Amino acid sequence: MAFDLYLGNEKAYIDIHEEVLFSLINENDSYPNLNWLWENYYENPLIHSVRANDIVHELINLRNEISNKNQYKQVKTTIDRIMPLLSKAYKEKKQIECASD
Q: Is the dihedral of CA 48, 23, 72, 12 positive or negative?
């Protein structure tokens, strides 16, 4: 099941095999916004600009934690794909609409 993030006409996504990202942060208090996203993953959440910015910072922290671990190469790719859209939402003070298949 893919998870699509939309900001106007722009799109980013998390593919089903990339959901391992959430297993790395599940119930970890250092990632409250990523945990919120996972808890609402199948509810087609709206990500408001401030939360988008918080998610970006959590993704940066996660990426730093896994930077030397080759087994998480795909997670790094996923993070790199979704961060720009989240950052843009914050900069433009817009919300991201999400849809899961």
A: negative
